[in-house]
Design brief:
The protein is α+β, with helices and mostly antiparallel strands. It has a domain of about 55 residues. The protein is built from 2 helices and 5 strands; from the N terminus they run βββββαα.
């Protein structure tokens, strides 16, 4: 799973396999914690990220929603900047 962004110890990843299914989403890893986030609704679908990390990921995703949806739809990889 390619890394598309890193910030504050959080690593954002997205599958780029044609076999990928389900709602458009990305994965956030923070130490031993993981979360799966909806790109369209910008909320955590499943996982155990601490509240502060979850809010940082949601803020970041809000800033990059269009790019994330484009990557999901076109199955193209590019690095995105971290959270300012």
């Amino acid at each position: 799973m390619p890394v598309i962004a890193r910030f504050y110890g959080i690593v954002i990843k997205m599958y780029f396999s044609q076999s990928e299914h389900g709602v458009p989403h990305f994965h956030a890893v923070y130490g031993e914690y993981n979360g799966v986030f909806s790109i369209e609704r910008l909320d955590m679908l499943e996982g155990d990220l601490p509240t502060r990390a979850r809010r940082l990921v949601e803020d970041w995703a809000c800033q990059h929603k269009d790019e994330l949806l484009d990557m999901w739809r076109n199955q193209t990889f590019r690095q995105l900047p971290g959270l300012d």
